[in-house]
Predict the structure.
Amino acid sequence: MRVLALAIALLVAAASEALADPLPLPSIPPDVQNNPIVQSVLNALGNVLLQTTNGNTAHGKVTYFRHFDLQLETAPNVYRDVHLHQGTVINPRGTTLAPGMTVDVSGSAQSDHSLDADTITAH
């Protein structure tokens, strides 16, 4: 129940930023914050709330790969298109990318928020 209440409080706090007089972000008591379940919820919410789609790097799970087009799920229900080119390096060498793989991508961010990949490292 505490986890649900905390998740709702964080979502309300994030949504309230658009208001003229935003609500303060609630503090979390240390004994609750150190709970592994609470940590999982905070990490998941943090990944969604802090997700950026215009940086020069991306980390996520491959949801689509075909020829020179790749799509990553960088957070729950947050996706980023990645474009490969003839010189894109995929590590470890010889790896074939496939849906479900976790990868790190670095390259050049584009104005449409996609990423032109120079290096992809599969984990």
Remarks:
- The first strand starts at residue 57 and ends at 66.
- The radius of gyration is 18 Å.
